[in-house]
């Protein structure tokens, strides 16, 4: 079985939405790269990253943060969604 940790980014922070409601969020970290680092340090080889702002805007909004994670962890496979059309 392959478990892939997820990082949802909204307003530049790592969040989890309650039942997909953009108004009901729990902030897990102010720095998504720090959240990625914790997952990598725990052995993650893949990360699923969602640009929630991009999903609502219809275009990538947090691409810079996602690029930062990709550059910081070049050996990790990323699955990216949100705002990609």
What can you see in these coordinates?
It comes from marine metagenome. This is 1-(5-phosphoribosyl)-5-((5-phosphoribosylamino)methylideneamino)imidazole-4-carboxamide isomerase. One of its GO terms (molecular function) is 1-(5-phosphoribosyl)-5-[(5-phosphoribosylamino)methylideneamino]imidazole-4-carboxamide isomerase activity. Belongs to the HisA/HisF family. One of its GO terms (cellular component) is cytoplasm. This protein has 85 residues and is an alpha/beta fold. The longest helix has 10 residues, at 32-41. The protein is globular and about 30 Å long. β1 (6-10) and β2 (13-18) form a beta hairpin. The mean pLDDT is 96. 31% of the residues lie in helices and 36% in strands. The protein has one domain (6-81).
Descriptive terms for the model:
alpha/beta, 3 helices, 85 residues, five-stranded mixed sheet, 31% helix
- General form: globular
End-to-end Cα distance: 30 Å
Oligomer: single chain
Residue stretches low in confidence (pLDDT < 50, at least 5 long) are none
The main sheet comes to: 5 strands, mixed
Family: Belongs to the HisA/HisF family.
GO molecular function: 1-(5-phosphoribosyl)-5-[(5-phosphoribosylamino)methylideneamino]imidazole-4-carboxamide isomerase activity
InterPro entries: Aldolase_TIM, His_biosynth, Isoase_HisA-like, RibuloseP-bd_barrel
GO cellular component, one term: cytoplasm
């Amino acid at each position: 079985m392959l478990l892939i940790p997820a990082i949802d980014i909204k307003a530049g922070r790592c969040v989890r939405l309650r039942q997909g409601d953009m108004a009901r969020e729990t902030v897990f970290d102010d720095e998504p790269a720090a959240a990625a680092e914790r997952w990598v340090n725990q052995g993650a080889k893949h990360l699923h990253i969602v640009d929630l702002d991009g999903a609502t805007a219809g275009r990538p909004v947090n691409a810079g943060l996602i690029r930062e994670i990709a550059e910081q962890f070049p050996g990790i496979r990323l699955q990216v969604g949100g705002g990609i059309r």
